[in-house]
Amino acid sequence: MTSEPLDRVTSERLLDGRLVDSPADARPVARLLTAVRAAPRPGELTGEGRAVLAFRRARATPAVTQSPPAAVAQSAPTAGVQSPPAAGA
Fold first, then answer.
1. How many other C-beta atoms can be found within 10 angstroms of the C-beta atom of residue 14?
2. Contact 33, 14 (CB under 8 A)
3. CA max distance for the chain
4. Among residues 45, 10, 57, which one has the least CA distance to residue 18?
5. DSSP for residue 61
6. From CA 8, how far away is CA 5, in angstroms rounded?
7. Rounded to whole angstroms, what are the CA distances from 20 to 9, 53, 85?
8. Contact (Cβ atoms closer than 8 angstroms) between residue 39 and residue 62
9. Is 21 left (phi over 0), alpha (psi -120 to 50) or beta?
10. Who has the most CB within 10 Å: 15, 20, 62, 86?
11. CA distance readout (Å), 21 to 2, 6, 80, 81
12. C-beta separation of 48 from 55 below 8 A
């Protein structure tokens, strides 16, 4: 693929919906922008409300951090690491 980057004028024209006389390299972008501007088809957004609610709940819940499994923690190298002295010693 040897397409050139879109210049600012062409990019702005495409974003404004003025797709007439778009250069060949801009045609895929023009088709994409046309598709995303279209109204949803019947049934296309079924379940959107549930998805948004699930997303918001997930974002509101703090992330759970997990410690490494015991096998990994035990197999960690300990060469040169000294244990602290016992209390009262």
1. 19
2. yes
3. 86
4. 10
5. S
6. 9
7. 13, 39, 79
8. no
9. left
10. 15
11. 20, 14, 71, 70
12. no
pLDDT tens profile 32-79: 888 888 898 889 899 999 999 999 999 998 877 777 666 655 555 555
For residue range 19-28, list pLDDT tens digits in order: 666 677 778 8
- Distance between CA 51 and CA 53 in Å, rounded? 5
3-state SS class at 58: helix
16: which 2 tokens?
């404004």
CA 3 to chain centre: 26
Assess contact for 3 and 25: CB atoms under 8 A. yes
Q: Is 42 helix (H, G, I), strand (E, B) or coil?
A: coil
Residue labelled with tokens 């600012």:
8
**Interior CA angle at 2 toward 36 and 24, to 5°?**
50
